[in-house]
Amino acid sequence: MGKLVGLDLPYNYVPSNPANYGGVRAVSNIKYIVVHYTANDGDTDTGNGSYFGRTKVGAGAHMFVDEDSCTQSILFNRVAYHCETAGMKFKCDCRNYNSIGVEMCSDKVNGKYVITRQTMLNTVKVVKYLMREYNVPAERVIRHYDVCGKLCPEPWVRVPSEWTEFKRLITEAEKKEDEEMVETINITVNGKEIKADAIVKDGRTFLSLRALENAGFAVGYYANTKRRTLGNIFKELPVVVGEKKEFVNAINIEGRNYVGIRDMAEMLGVGVEYDRATDTVTLKK
Ligand SMILES: [Zn+2]
Could you tell me the distance, in angstroms and rounded to a whole number, from the CA of residue 101 to the centre of ligand 1? Predict the structure, then answer.
């Protein structure tokens, strides 16, 4: 059993038989994560891995998850045949080419399929990892059922509260991670030093709008403007400084806005320097 950096679950890669998957794709095509169940009784991720490795099935999934580990069968830059069920009508724009398929191993208890709590919690870990890695928000984590009406994962269609619970766990995790990103940094404006909440994401610094106001800038923003959202990340936020109104890159967490410091500096017509070593941002005329 190996390890995947950023995934807190034993991980294995057992390549699928090439007959079970399609062509290469750009991972930037990945928009959805689709959850399935295997409809088996007491199967394992490793068992599925070796089965799909040696058998030509003409279908498959990227990942299999059970109670103690996960197995990758198809690389994420390959199209897996997992959610386009023949003869069924699509309910959204999720397809094989723009999604990752995750199969949960299942059990049968009193003639009914179940996903055990441990397998569900491990699936939360795997899905959270994939959400982070491929920038997929919780709202685009869906069931095979939501793609085309297939009763899959059957226990999560029959008992909708189990699906709701899973969504709550991946959404909660997403929020918590964002909160953890908020840190306090020093900003110097016209020689005056203040402490400000900020987020450093993808090598870019986002400052809380309130901090800029505290630093003496009159900043207004259009809270009611329709905005495009990606999870709880705003792609753009209209900001007014003096007479200027422009769209800047921003992040919204728990109702607070964090704006891209470079965008803001450009708007304010000031220079910006950020010293990562001392966590100090300097705005200069
Ligand atoms: Zn399915």
Answer: 8
pLDDT, tens only, 66-106: 999 999 999 999 999 999 999 999 999 999 999 999 999 99
**CA 229 to centroid of ligand 1, rounded, Å:** 28
CA of 83 to the centre of ligand 1 (A): 6
Domains of the chain: which residue ranges?
A: 2-158, 181-284
Q: Which amino acid is at 71?
A: T
- How far away, in angstroms, is 152 Cα from ligand 1 center? 5
For the beta sheet containing 192-201, the strands, ordered from the edge strand earlier in sequence to the opposite edge, are: 250-253, 256-260, 204-208, 192-201, 182-189, 280-284, 271-275
- Give the pLDDT confidence score for residue 284 in this predicted structure: 64
Taking every pair of C-alpha atoms in the chain, what is the biggest distance, in angstroms?
73
2-158 is classed CATH 3.40.50.150: no
Cα(184) to ligand 1 centroid in Å equals 44
Strand 21-24, strand 229-230: pairing: unpaired
Backbone φ and ψ for 71, nearest 5 degrees, come out as -130, 130
Determine the distance separating the centroid of ligand 1 and the alpha carbon of 56, expressed in angstroms: 18
Ligand 1 centre distance from Cα of residue 67 (Å): 19
Residues 6+ apart with CB under 8 A from 145: 151, 152, 153, 156, 157
Contacts of residue 191, Cβ cutoff 8 Å, sequence gap at least 6: none
CA of 102 to the centre of ligand 1 (A): 9
